[in-house]
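Sanity check. The docking grid for adenosine-5'-diphosphate depends on where the pocket ends up, so I'm generating a full predicted complex first rather than guessing from homology. Inputs follow.
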Amino acid sequence: MATVQLKTVKFGGSSLADAAQFQKVRAIIEADPGRRFVVPSAPGKRHAKDTKITDLLYRCQKLAAEGLDFSESLEIIRERYLEIAKSLSIRFDPTEELEKIGAHLKEGATKDYAASRGEYLNGLLLSDYLGFPFVDAAEVVCFNAAGVFQMEETMQKMRKRLSEMECAVIPGFYGAAPDGDIITFSRGGSDITGSLVARAVRAAMYENWTDVSGVLVADPRIVPNAAVINTVTYEELRELSYMGATVLHEDAIFPVRAAGIPINIRNTNDPSAPGTLIVADDSAESDTLTGYTITGIAGKKGFCAINIQKAMMNAELGFCRRVLSVLEENGISFEHMPSGIDTMTLILPEDAIRGKEQTVLSGIRKAVSPDRCEIEHGISLLAVVGRGMRRTRGTAARIFAALAHARINVKMIDQGSSELNIIIGLLDGDFEEAVRRIYDIFITSVTAAETN
Ligand code: ADP
Ligand code: ASP
Ligand code: MG
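Predicted complex below; grid placement will be based on this.
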């Protein structure tokens, strides 16, 4: 008989958006006896115009904080859970819990508390439906008083609690500080909880079930029917998720990577698809290259560039340090710093500089007396990531030829020293087209050549 491998399974919001999705989830869990520790998100969108439970909860908290009535949104939440429970013929009724939540909100409960209740209630519902015991994440995911996540304490508590259990449902996204205050991870953070549970129970695999058949070479909203990446290394995925491939939270990689537990991204709506396996760079699986030079393309809008020009700036000792100290004084960190002999550019998120623009520019003028110093808005960053680039020549040339051919103006190029990625700065208006052009040159044309 084949040995059963212990797995932690995390289901995202769209995988638990309604009763039909819950049925798929149960079928997936029942299909493999190794799937014993289950981490749910809050119910997500049922269709494009729907609202996630998490967003409804944030809305309730905002209204409560302004002293306004939030009962309508709370009622929508209640009805959604009730509808799921009724269709699944289980007794779960969130009414009492939601009354408590409403009372807390009126007393000034925090955003984190409000948002966490989506996962909390969904965890209770799923535990009822599966017949698995419920473990409140507030008891096993630890933050310190300043709201900083505590790995060691979490591992100790989680291990102690879960090692005595055959199976459990542990809601994603939140934990608690020593005084019991609820703290959440950033958005999409149930992926992190899944990773923590996988590590705590020493799972052989962390399965992350979502609504796409794995990590795709490019965002499916930009490149419809983008190819699935079969294997990706932790490092590549971190680059891709940091740069906007939101399929997995960028911080979900650390806990399992340290323990050597692979992650398998799977599709709840197509459980027979193998999905994407995320593995260590030096593992046997990582040698299975995708068949393409690049592994993936990701990117984000919402950056700006501070362009600084001064004749002979590179001969001026401490020039760079003085510019960067202006950013530091204003509490801003930058993403990239391409430079030339007489020019230097700082690429940073628009959010980081909003409201501080003039202070920063005048600070730089005072610090280094540049010939010119100006800010350019509407910049996107695009990352082309791939472990195959190290052994392939001419990747950058192919990218830039494709972009030049499409008359796309490249603002910046930055190749990481690991040769794992090439970052390109573009104007926002060119972003989607650039992604498609790069996809075509590395994926579509290669696939076409193979089938010819
Ligand atoms: P979940 O609710 O299951 O956590 P998310 O919405 O967080 O799911 O992540 C899945 C979504 O990520 C997909 O539906 C897709 O729109 C988006 N996405 C963006 N880039 C990529 C990519 N490169 N590969 C796969 N999905 C991507
Ligand atoms: N429900 C939370 C969110 O919408 C966390 C998650 O889904 O992972 O961000
Ligand atoms: Mg997610």
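Relevant for the grid: DSSP finds 15 helices and 14 strands in the chain.
Also worth noting: The pocket of adenosine-5'-diphosphate (ligand 1) is lined by residues 12-15, 41, 44, 188, 210-212, 215-216, 218-221, 245-247, 296 (CB under 6 Å).
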